[in-house]
Amino acid sequence: MSSPSIRSFETHRFHKGWLIVTAVVIGSFGPVFSLATRASTSGPARWTLELLNGPGGDAESFAGTTQFLTALTGGFLFGMGVMVLGLRAWVYDAAPDGVRRSVVAGLLSWFVLDSAGSIASGNPWNAFFNVIVLLVAVGPMWRPARG
Predict the structure, then answer these.
(1) 10 Å Cβ neighbour count for 118?
(2) What is the C-alpha separation between 63 and 67, in angstroms, rounded?
(3) C-alpha dihedral (80, 99, 135, 30), degrees to nearest 10
(4) How many Å apart are CA 16 and CA 12, to the nearest integer?
């Protein structure tokens, strides 16, 4: 039995499949950290932060991780913004409705999880603010473009 050629990792089919891995890696952080809105469900986030802090890292309490979480969240959000710009530049003309649906689905997923976490953590004002951000970010993309 021969090992797969390095070329097999460069196929359209393999890359399309790998996008599932990419989505899971990116998306898995959302529920983990959103569960941290309640002390009773914060275990996965606590474990993840300890892992990411590394051996010999700061032994700060879980409550003192706001700066660390802000750095992680900022990095992910910036990366997702760059990804939307990449979809616009390199994919939209070939598959406008696919890009539109992907962006709207991502925004709706953010909205639901972020708003639920905000309400659960006692910050309902952010859920209201999220409605405004959602409406601005989605804009006319609720419906497919014509022409």
Answers:
(1) 19
(2) 10
(3) -40
(4) 6
Q: What is the DSSP letter of 41?
A: G
Q: Note the residue count of the chain.
A: 147
What is the per-residue pLDDT across 92-103, written as a single tens digit (0 to 9) for each?
A: 999 999 999 999
d(CA 9, CA 14): 6
- Give residue-wise pLDDT tens across range 61-93: 655 666 677 777 878 888 899 999 999 999 999
DSSP assignment, residue 38?
S
Residue 115: CA count within 13 A, CB half-sphere = 14
Q: How far apart (Å, rounded) are the C-alpha atoms in residues 12 and 73?
A: 31
